[in-house]
Amino acid sequence: MLKRTIYVIGVIFIVILSLWSIFFVSNQMARTKSESQKAQVLETTKEEIVEPIIPKEVTLLFVGDIMLTRGVGTSVKNNFGGDFNKLFENIPEIKKADILFGNLEGPVSDIGNNVGSKYSFRMDPSILPTIKNAGFDIVSFANNHVGDWNVNAFKDTLLRFEVSEIPQIGAGINKVDAETPVIIEKNGIKFGFLGFSDVGPAWMEAKEGKAGILLASDPRLPEIIQNAKLESDVLIISIHWGDEYKTTHNAHQESLAKIIIDNGADMIIGHHPHVIQDIGEYKGKTIVYSLGNFIFDQYFSKNTMRGMAFEAKFEDGILKNTESKIITLNKKYQPEGIFTKEEIKERDELASFICPKPDKDYADMWLLPIGQDVSLPDVTYIPKDLRELDTYSSTKKGICLIKEARDSFESMVKQAQEDGLIIKGSSGFRSYATQKLILATEIKNGNPNAEIAVAKAGHSEHQLGTAIDVTGQSIQYMSASKSFEKTNEALWMENNAQDYGFIESYPLSKESITGYQYEPWHYRYVGADNAKEIINTGETTIEYLESLQ
């Protein structure tokens, strides 16, 4: 009996153990399968996650003729202490381009002899670090001035380019060197550059064993371009061509452009006319016929004192967008900034007007206490009787005041002349648009005090036709300059202006009252009686005028 009982218990134990083993193995297999399935799901998920492809954008900026000698060199010496870097301080944005290009109009050397004419150029070698610092990645050296100081200066320039690590195109120590394109790779895209001159000099043509430049008249032009294209994803041809001072391209330029594009060029960048020419297109390829001047001393016309800044944006080697803007030069041959065509149009219109007339009747505003907190009731306000100052009383044409103020200012100028001083007005009436532009320019130039240095449009005394900025001979008629404060002309104004109805609007230490910084040059016409009363009371102009309301 006992044996049977033990036997039964043993059988039951074995059955239980077997069932437990089966359960354990099944559970492990299920867990393994589950983990395997999870791994497969994760792997599938990883495969499905695709990183977004970000287009590789490259921005190219092209500017025109660069000539840093003659009048430009003299200006840099007289105005900037010989520092050529100052020429570029108003246009720091050119450095933002991935590739910056310009045409260098002449050799950079201190050797050679002048074999050209009175228009021969040779730039001091010290300008090359300036070109580099300004952000230029490549320059064209195929133009009609490269031989002005003979072959020695030309070869010396090529060597200096190499030492300065400034790539140049269109020129070489021999024909093979000149034909070799410069390749600049950006974001995996090879941008090839090649340069030609269509205006000589023929005697400077590069040949086997002879230094020189590539000429567009070369019968191998198609082959040279085709070979360059083989090395480039995007091939840009720079060419010196066209008629000087003509604002539209000629038939020869157009014909040559077609040949260049038919043989592989993706874009043509032209220069030489010294003025901006039109932009064309052939087979979907852009042709910039002339960039005009970038920095040059051709002061004799508005067109030669400005040039094009042509921007081209490529994505993955495909041209996606182009934009042309305008660079203007000041009297120091220094670029003032880069402007849109709309901004240039507005500047030109403002510069050319002679005393605008109102198109409706306005209430008389000449004694309005206008300022930071008081604006014109109608921002389109134009006084009904604006008159232009005569040439003896103004620094330029188009400076206008209301007739009473104009007559009084001219009388004051005559008296100052009799006293041995020359005083002139440098700014008078301003429209709403002009005032808006001046403030916007100050803000764009980074002036942290712009809104206390320049009134908001609609809040300026200049819009009343009664305010004038005064300057004098002793500071060479600089406009709105604090250096006027210490002059004999400024002292004369302080002692005599009230007799002619003018009063200083923004005197020293009154900023908290006037809302504007001290401006020793800024006077407002309020009439002789009011001006003398302001002097007697010691009030500011705005305090006195507010008391009259």
TrEMBL record:
Task: State the coiled-coil residue ranges.
Answer: none
Q: What GO molecular function annotation could you give as one example from this UniProt entry?
A: peptidase activity
Gene Ontology biological process: proteolysis
Specify the Capsule synthesis protein CapA domain's residue ranges.
59-298
Superkingdom of this protein's organism: Bacteria
Query: Keywords in UniProt for this one?
Result: Membrane, Transmembrane, Transmembrane helix
Transmembrane segment boundaries: 6-25
Q: Which SUPFAM superfamilies match?
A: Hedgehog/DD-peptidase, Metallo-dependent phosphatases
**Recorded family membership:** Belongs to the CapA family.
- Tell me the protein's name: Poly-gamma-glutamate synthetase complex A
In its UniProt entry, the species of origin is given as Candidatus Nomurabacteria bacterium GW2011_GWE1_35_16
Taxon lineage: Bacteria, Candidatus Nomuraibacteriota
